[in-house]
Structures are given as C-alpha cells and as structure tokens.
Amino acid sequence: MNSFSFQRLLAYLQKEGKQILRDPSTFLIAFVLPLIMMFIFGYGVSLDADKIRIGLLLEDTSPTARSLENSFLATSYFNVQASYSRPALENEMTGGRLRGIVTIPQDFSQNFLRGTPASLQVLLDGSEPNTANFVLNYSGGVVNIWQSQLNTEKKIDFSFPVIPQPRIWFNEDLKSRNVLLPGSVAIILSLIGILLTALVVAREWERGTMEAIMSTPIQFNEIILGKLIPYFLLGLGSMMLCVSLSLTLFEVPFRGSLFVLLLSTSIFLLAALGQGLLISTLTRNQFVSSQVSIMLGFLPAFVLSGFIFEIKSMPWPIQVITYLLPPRYFVTILQSTFLSGTIWELILPNLVAMLLMALVFFSITINKSKKRLD
Q1: Which helix (H) or strand (E) holds 116?
Q2: Residues 242, 188: contact at Cβ < 8 Å?
Q3: Mind spelling out the 3-state secondary structure of 154-222?
Q4: Nearest CA-CA partner of 16 in 189, 223, 192, 205
Q5: Final residue before a domain boundary, out of 140, 169, 198
Q6: How far apart are CA 307 and CA 185, in angstroms?
Q7: Which letter does DSSP use for residue 372 in this model?
C-alpha cells in the first residue's frame, strides 16, 4: 500500500479528466485586477526609448569618420559601443546586447570629401520592431545633424548627402506580429498552467472532496502527478495549436529547432504548474487562488516578461523583479527560436533558470502539502 501504484494514478487521472471537462474553472476579476493593472502600467512600464545600446563599427579612422563617431557618442539617445571588429559587434547583437550596428565603411571619408554618395550600413535587430525603427530613424537624424554642423563650421556645401543603408536582422519586414505571436504562447501557457491549475486543489477543499480523496489509499505524490499530467498535456496541445496557427495562418518565420521549442515549453509548463499548485495549496479557496494567480502569474507575464514592453526600458527595480518571473525567460527563448534560430548561448541560461524555478515551486508545494486534514 505504501508503494507507488500506476493503477491508482490512472484512476485518479480519469477522475481529473472528467472534472476538467465538466468545470473549466474560469473566473473574472472585478476589482483587484484593475487596481493591479493601474499599478503596473503606472509605475512598472516605460515606453521611453532612450539609452539604446548600439554598436559603431569603425572601418574608417580618418578625422571625418572620427567626427561622425563623436556625434554618435554625444547623443543622449544611444549608448554607443565603438569597435574595430565586426565579429565582436555581431556577436553582441546576436546575443541581444545590442539593438543595432552602424558601420562607417573604409571609403566613407574619401567619398564624402569628394562629393560622391557616402553610404553607412545600419544593421537592426528586428525582434524589437519599435526599437529598430527608432534606431534607424535617429541614426539618420544624427548623421543629418552632423553633416549640417560640418557644413556650417567649414562653410562647405556637399551636394551628395550621406545615405544610411539599413539591413534588418531576424525580422526583415519589421512586422510586430512576428514578435507578438511567439510571445503570446508564453501568455497563453501562463494562463493555463498557473491560473487554471491554481483552482484545482482549492476546488477540492471548497467542495469537500479532498477529505474523500485522503481517505483512500492514494499517496500524495500520486495526487500531485494526477493533477499535473492533465494540465501539462493541455498546455502542450495549446502550444502546438498556437505554433501551427502562427506558421500557417500568420506566416511567422520559424528558424529554430522544434526540439528546443518542445523542451523549453515542457520546462516552462513545469514551472507554471508548480506555481499554480503552490498557490492553490496555500490558499485553499478558489476566489483567492484566482486573484493571487492573476496578480503573481498571468498579469506579470503579460506586462513584465518583455512580451510587449522592452525590459531594458523599465526602471531598474522592476527589471530586478522580472528575473523572478519564468515568462521572462520563456519569451526570450520563443523569440529567439522563431526569429533568430537555435542560439544556445541565449537559450541555455534561460532553460536553466526556468528549471530551477520549477524545482523551487514543487519543493515548496511538497513541503507544504501533507496527507492530513489540518
């Protein structure tokens, strides 16, 4: 009786499946959710695009090119990392640490002083469309201001302006849906994994069925698995549906690995399910569970995960809080998998972070849950 029984687990899974079909356990929040939304949107989110990190590749080191470099360094809108190495800057951009690279080519000064068109190359990270547009537009503005000042100081009228030539990485068309749809998978799975799962144990306590379950020979680890597996499969099914619609109906590019997508989704679901089970175990009330789930799970996933608003634009205390949210890491993996490809340097640390959070949630749940009525 003390050993693990697959027969008891299967019977409990059948019971959970029927219960899920009969009662989806969906709640509307009337008062707390608007307050939390006002707090987060008022204090936790900033849409100001300043101090954006870009790279400046100096293939031309003449005084004219240095003058243009100083113009980029002097602006308050960019945090410029100047370098002579293209691979170093491209690695920084691939790793998400730069949002663009402005290249001053070798023949820039020669063409500019000769009066022929002098081109600049502007590489943009298309995974953040709004930021990419800002970098492109303001780079052109910096160049125009620099050229006007140069004309005024030297009283020279150049008949050919400097023409930036953009090349956009990862999201060539700068379509927002190519970024939003992959990120929405994290929001949907947060809703399924945290909100719905949080109602499971609380519903058992409210309806008095937990006492009946505890009077049976079933062990607590079998109860946890019986509540975990149905929602885990439901989450995988929802992920597959979302990805299929994104690829077929909305034509979102997918450049990564399906294995990485399944692996990251599985680990994220474990973290979300663990958080939901912990909430329901501690509250034992459906209404309170739904409130806490939205405050600590769904709403932060929507606002503070980088799904819509760039985390680096938020105040630093809020940026620290985002490191405690599993969706922050999952959104990064999804956007990388869809738009950039399988970049293990970016994916592996996020997978490890989500796995650690899942272990923490389940450890606390097991520690707080005992097969007794008190």
Answers
A1: none
A2: yes
A3: HCCCCCCCEEEEEEEECCCCCCCHHHHHHHHHHHHHHHHHHHHHHHHHHHHHHHCHHHHHHCCCCCHHH
A4: 223
A5: 169
A6: 10
A7: S
As given in the structure block, the two tokens for residue 58 are 């100096």
- CATH number of domain containing 122: 3.40.1710.10
- Rounded Cα distance between 307 and 331, Å, is 6
Helix (H) / strand (E) containing 54 = strand 52-58
pLDDT of residue 323: 92
DSSP assignment letter at 118: E
pLDDT in tens, 291-334: 888 888 878 888 888 877 788 878 888 889 999 999 999 999 99
Question: Token pair for residue 371?
Answer: 């097969």
Strand partners, 55: 81, 101
Q: Would you list the DSSP string of 311-341?
A: GGGS-HHHHHHHTT-HHHHHHHHHHIIIII-
Handedness of CA 274, 275, 280, 282 (dihedral sign): positive
Q: Does 163 lie in the same domain as 94?
A: yes
Question: Which of these three, 169, 197, 219, is where a domain ends?
Answer: 169
